Amino acid sequence: PPEDLVNGGYPLLREAGNSLRKNGVNFTDLSRVFRSTHDPLYYDCCHVVPEGSRIMARAIADAILREFP
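RESULT FIELD:
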């Protein structure tokens, strides 16, 4: 099922992110951005509702501001 592919892919993506960081690339792992949210944010195995997009957009903006103050 698609959920298995998505769940199996996250560890690989985290490893790739660590590799990027080790090679000097500014990389922020946002794969756990929804960890403190208890509301349902996904409408399928990998796409989010508008509130999920807002949370992600804020996290991206915060990461950019940290890297480029």
